[in-house]
Design goal:
By secondary structure, the chain is α/β, with parallel strands linked by helices. It has eight helices and six strands, in the order E-E-H-E-H-E-H-H-H-E-H-E-H-H.
Length: 245
Amino acid sequence: MERITLFCAPHAGAGAATFRDWQRHLPAWLELVALQLPGRGAKYAIPPIRDWNTLRTVLLDQVTPKLAGPFAIFGHSMGALIGLELAHAIRSRYGLEPIWLGASACTAPSRRSLESDWLTRPRETVIERLRMLGGTSEEVLRDSSLLDALLPVLRADFHLCGTYESEPRAPLSAPLLVLGGTADEVSSPRENLSAWSREASGDFQLEMVDGGHFFIEANRQAVIRRIVEAIADVVARVNAVSSMI
């Protein structure tokens, strides 16, 4: 099977380390490339990005060396928006599209509300948002020095999510799989997830996974398995069509 690159985009406040052990659970034909945003990991010293135009350019430069063959894109929470924008940026610059797109735990672009004050909201409000999402331990939330280091990135990422605007443009042609958590507030109403169908003209699937907003951690193996199955199905269909030509 031809080797396929899988670009993975993390949730707000996170970096490439979110996917650090995924590759060992993937088949040999699927190569994971975790996107690394400024302000975290190896790019910790670089100020976090607060606007989508700059982020598109930075990520496009990051993935360009990996676009020689077929690729797929998956993103969780904020990462789903990043994945969508990256796909459009690649199509705009190179005329290429992903063979598959995955989005999880993220309100669809057309259903989002404007929240443009995350850069100035009180510290306590940001902490409470983290507590509500459930992906940060109380130990971290009570560590003032650690929070001082994390807050600039979190504010920038929440600002990106809050100022994201759906643009009038042709949908992507890729099949799209959307995953939602059964106990995640994003999953209610269901249209928050089903409205993703407007973003791609390929086959659309919406599936629920047990857990809250970070079901990607609580049910990691199930999520990885479903992603692999979905991409393998796309490849099988493409090969079947090719064999008839």
